[in-house]
Amino acid sequence: MSLFPIFLKLAARPCTVIGAGNIAESKIESLLQAEARVKVIAPEALPRVRVWAAAGELEWRQREYQHGDLAGAFLVVAATATAAVNRAVFAEASAAEILCNAVDDPPFCDYYFPSVVRRGELQIAISTAGESPALAQRLRKEISAQLPLDTGEWLMELGRLRREVTAVEPIGEPRKLLLHELAQREVCGYDACPSRMRARQHARDMGLVHPIHDDDKAVVMDGAPDSEVVR
Questions:
Q1: Total-model pTM
Q2: Is the pLDDT of residue 210 over 80?
């Protein structure tokens, strides 16, 4: 079966996790990182899950799963140590047309949790469609070893520079080529950053930046010297 790769915005969306032990903990953490509104249903919970519940980061209902617990959920994770319970959760979710993952039971999964490499806003997700999570984990480690730890900070500055460029340059091939060029360069937060200066020079070459005159009504380019304005 071919899978559709997607990065999903879960902020403030209700997500229900059945289970709060070793199987569930990492899934709960990943949902919290995505700022989902998490509800956990389990009679017992690991210390970290208890801490999250005590801090108000999630809702913990301390009891066994009951049919009807998935009402209103956007996404469901069945992560108990009992396959029969996980499959019952999957059956309820399927009947309600709610996407569900029964952990480590691929036939009873609408989606899979990938192995993820994270550097700030950069995420690289790896999936084997449940065939070999061990392989996905090995690939994650290999990719992580090749990415500098400060890649997230670099991406943040690159994103800031991209917004400066797109605020000035019209959509078209020249802008596309410039953005691809900048993605190959070192970027820093300084006003005199060579990549930022390159972007400004490109704007001048395109006739988008001109010297200020007394009768100008133009807006100064974000981060540009006061002697330059964008028409």
A1: 0.73
A2: no
